[in-house]
Each structure stands twice: as C-alpha cells, then as structure tokens.
Amino acid sequence: MAQQWEQLRQTLNFQHSRYLNGRLRIGYLSGDFRAHAMSHLITGIFREHNRSNFEIFAYSTGADDNSEYRNYIANTSEHFKDVASLSIEETAQLIYDDQIHILIDLNGHTAGTRTPVLALKPAPIQVHLMGTPGTIGADFVDYLIADSIVTPPEFADGFNENIVRLPHSYFFNDNQQVISTNSVKRSQYDLPESSFVFCCFNNHYKVEPTIFDVWMRILANVSGSVLWLIARYPINEANLRREAQARGISGDRLIFAPHEAKAEHLARHQLADLFLDTLYYNAHTGTCDALWAGLPVITCPGETFPSRVAASMLMAVGLPELVTNSLEAYEQLAIHLATYPEKLQQIKQKLAQNRTTYPLFDTPLYTRNLEQAYRTMWEIYASGQPARAITINS
Residue-wise over 330-351: b if at least 16 C-beta within 10 A, else e? Predict the structure, then answer.
C-alpha cells in the first residue's frame, strides 16, 4: 500500500513554491467536523484565527450530520469544503489547487482518517494536531503539535515528526463551551445523595487492570463511596461490576451515566466530587470537560504521550498538586481528598478561579501561539531549510 501511494505521489508530482503572496493559507483536514469531541473543542480556534494574516480552509471527509458544530465550523472558516465523496487523489488535488501552505491533519490514525491524502504531499508543510496522541510514523508529516510535558526532550527519538512545543498545553479548548443551567440532581442519575462520588467519564477501553485495582482500593478505603462511569455497552458494565466484585467491592458501587447532550453532560459533572484519571491512556476530552465544569482531576503521568495529556492540562490550569508521581501517591491523594472535604473544597475554589485566568482555557492565547508556530514553520520552509523542532515561547 505504501508503495502504491508513493507511486501516485510521483505521478502527481505536486510542485510547491516557497514564495508567499498574501496570507498564509491554512487547511484543516478532518472526518470529525460533526457532533464529535474534536469539534466541541476546535470551534474556538476557527473563531479566533487572525483573518488578516491567515486564510482558513476546512476539508470535511466525514458525513454531514447537520449539527451545530459542523455548521459553526462551516460558517467560521472562509472556505468549507465537503470532500467526503471524493477519492484520496481527488482530495489531494483539490488541496493542491487551493494552494494550501500548511495542511493540518486532525485525525491521524483514528476513525474516518484520510491520512493517505497527506502521503500525496498536496501541501508543502504538513502537520498533525490532536487526533492521534503520538507519532503518525510517516515521513510525509513534517510536524507534530505538542508541548514539553507530553513530549519531553528524551521522547524525541520516538517520533518521525519534528516536534512543535507550545508554551502551555497542546490540547486546544473552546472557552465558550456552554454548560447547561438546568437544575441537576443526583437522583436523576441514581447517585446516592450523601456518598462521595468518584468519577471517570472515559472510554471503557482505557480502563485496564492496574488502574482498576487502584480504584477498587480507593473505594474500599472511602466508606460508602461510589464510582461513576460512562455507560457504553451492557456487557462492559457487567464485566466491570464482575471485576469489582472479584476485588471485594460490590458491583452496585459502580454506577453508569447514560449519554447526554454536551451542555447537559458538562453540567452533571457538578454532581461528582473527584475525577479519577486512567493510566496508560488518559482521559483527554474527559479531563478537559471535567476541568471546564469545575471538577478536579487526579492523574499519574506515564512514559508515553497519551499517558501524560491530563498532566499537561492540569499544569496549564495551575493545579500541579493533582499530578502525582506514582500510583501509590495517586491512591493516597484520592483517599485524602475524599476524607478531608475542606481540602477538596479549596482545590475546587482554586480551579474555579484558574479556569478563567490560566492558559488552558484561554482560546485566544492558544490560537496566537498556534499561529506563531505556523509562521515559524513557513519561515523555515521559505528559507530553504529542512523542517526542524520548534519551541514557541509564552
């Protein structure tokens, strides 16, 4: 397959100029311009882009769900192009004809990917952002947007791309996400009124035995506490309850939250007391949602990009005390905060203040830093130099 794409690339033989006439033309390629976690968060970037210096294109490879998110992106990008029905070659040709300077892949190796479009090199500079938390593993992606926490210097050899380190978290957010103001009660979700509620609204495939063992020990040490998880499939719920029982914890102490619209989902976080992160593959949007909704998150960063994302966000929102250096410390901190409510309340008050004053949810600041990264990429390319690692200072 790789040979086929290479042959097609040679046949198309796209030629790129190093001369910039007018604004930088930025193309965002995604199959998730729809009611999807990525679109929930990226809308702010489309809103905040400086149109005096950047011309924004969005190429949608996914189905049109006519959602508010898709329509918002369509209305805030200067050029929104539905390429779902086009072939890989046709999509690449369109991007080339649009004279895109920097093409941003928002999927990577996730559902709906059109990574082969990048293999044809329709733009002189190609970048991966957000979709896959790690390397794409291909020589046709020039840069990976990251930060110093998810990709410390010692990780560099594990990436094909040149790493662009933003000054704060690489994880983008929309600081205008709506949190429903409708009244929510624990009884709506079968949560006990007076119990301590631990929460992890993360995909079940991220829950593995090591962190589940820790969670069950936490429940064992916090009398009457429950663990609130997202509902996915009945078999998953049955399996998790069975595993809890095997660790001496009643399956009834695992409670599953049904799907809600985004604004309502954010609002129900106020019913929980503390969010427990997963280990090897953190909650990414889950951490972002919890912090935006005012719910503290405990994490234990590992040695890989996806295991360090929550730490990146917590540092960017000024809560380093919730980043632990071992699973033992993670467990002890969770038990301590559940046992001393005044300490937990102090952290919640700090989060409430920091979410509007720290970089994590400063969408205009994030967009300015991203634009500076784009300008630097172009300056390197225009000067005839090969792509290299970039650090954007705050």
Answer: bbebbbebbeeeeebeeebeeb
